[in-house]
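Help needed: design a sequence for this.
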């Protein structure tokens, strides 16, 4: 496996967002097989991070499982989470996120604020939305089975990673012409 899917949950939509949870899952793009998982609930007392009142209100509209990420213990200092994520990423080749402008950028900003070099290089960046769009242009219609996500799973970092891996791997097969 050379790919890692990353998803974060935050209390703001800005680059300096307070990070609630970090999830990452190693996977094989060709087979969809998943491997090691990384999941951390982050201490909300974070250097230079923003908490947006409107985002906090939005969290109250989510499932109990999603909201639990705000209060569950144990919570780990962000610095430790960043160091742990670097170790988890190791020598992987590709860091996938749902879109190009949020999760990875927030993480990179957190690394910068804490003076830690991110293990993933900018050349490692991959975008789920681009793959799905390219597959749709080739006529791909996401299958109904296998891509369901219950309301309780939405906005849970690990559940979102697995959901995004399923979509990306299926779309990738269409792009390669093997679906």
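Sure. Designed sequence:
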């Amino acid at each position: 496996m050379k790919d890692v899917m990353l998803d974060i949950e935050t209390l703001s939509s800005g680059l300096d967002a307070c990070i609630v949870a970090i999830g990452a899952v190693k996977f094989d793009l060709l087979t969809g097989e998943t491997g090691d998982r990384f999941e951390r609930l982050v201490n909300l007392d974070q250097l230079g991070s923003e908490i947006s009142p409107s985002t906090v209100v939005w969290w109250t509209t989510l499932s109990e499982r999603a909201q639990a990420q705000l209060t569950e213990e144990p919570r780990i200092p962000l610095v430790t989470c960043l160091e742990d994520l670097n170790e988890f990423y190791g020598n992987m080749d590709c860091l996938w996120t749902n879109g190009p402008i949020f999760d990875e950028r927030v993480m990179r900003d957190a690394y910068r604020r804490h003076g830690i070099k991110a293990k993933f290089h900018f050349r490692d960046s991959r975008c789920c939305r681009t793959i799905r769009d390219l597959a749709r242009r080739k006529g791909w219609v996401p299958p109904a089975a296998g891509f369901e996500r219950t309301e309780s799973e939405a906005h849970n970092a690990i559940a979102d990673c697995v959901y995004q891996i399923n979509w990306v791997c299926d779309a990738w097969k269409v792009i390669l012409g093997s679906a």
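The longest helix spans residues 157-176.
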